[in-house]
Fold:
Amino acid sequence: MFPGTSLRPYDAVLLVSFGGPEGPDDVLPFLRRVADGRAIPESRLEEVSRHYLAFGGVSPINSRNRALVSSLRAELDRRGVDTPIVWGNRNWHPFLDEALLGLAGRGARRILMLPTSAYACYSGCRQYREDVEGALRRIGWTPPPVVERTRVYFDSPGFLEANVQAIVESFLRLASAGADLDRIDLALVTHSIPLAMERGSGEPDRPETRYTAQHEALARVLVPEAARRLGLRRIRYGLVFCSRSGPPHAPWLEPDVNEYLGRLAASGAQAVCCAPIGFVSDHMEVVYDLDVEAKATADGLGLSYDRAATAGTHPAFVRSLADLMLERAAVARGEALDAPPASITDIGPWHEECRPGACLEREGDVRVEAGRGRTACTSSGPAA
Structure:
């Protein structure tokens, strides 16, 4: 779908993730960093800290990112691409500053950023770019490098395949435990965001590109394909949310997954598969909010419960990420793609560079695009 097998003109790939604590002493400092400037009460941070401490104070996200870097490295090696891949976190070690300093030492001048967020909204898209900008300013890299990100990839064939396969396997586990296959409900779970952020997400004046609409577009393809593979006429499903935070008076996307489970039980449902399609890999919002909290809710309601796997390092997903990077490199070289970029939804394909005003923190924000007038998916450091 694109010419060549080279990541030129990029000198390196920067995998950017959220980060997570690696031990009990890290938990509250990590949470305070995440909450900085967000008016989240200390009592809420202490409550969430207990979620981490129940797992030894270790979030699974860092080990999953190490595995993803290893899988991407193997996939690029298989294609004869030797561009280095480094990993940096927004909120914990290895921090973005550390990763970028390492690249500065290698003399990198143009860097391709691959966020571990599949969807477009402020916290899943623009904030990644802004955090890279901030790290570049702090380290004072002069003259500044150019950092350009891949397009969002919720609509990539590999992300679809990984999630379809995970849902099919989950349904089969429930069936083997005694559930009627054609009576299993599906909860498609993603991270809740404030309604103001939802209204500012996606592209300006295109409501069909908003955060929830992206998930719904994926669901319109994903659910029928899972049903087909299971030999079912249809699967009853809903898009639900988890992990809301922030001040209680601020409205966030609903329904919460636990509320939705209550609705299912009240409707006479027998079994439910929770599929975390809003998450690229396991982290605390998955292993606590779904594996502990939602499962306890389901058990209390008498619902058979199973949680589908995240995309993680599924081979098809890793291949799609490699395709995405090579596609972006071809565009950066000014080469014409020999076919339209891959997209499995009726929204896509997403733009290689986000349009000005995309993915605002809240509807109506006025933003000056950073990085010498570049678009929201492109970053550069401070002027030389």
Notes: The chain is about 40% helix and 10% strand.
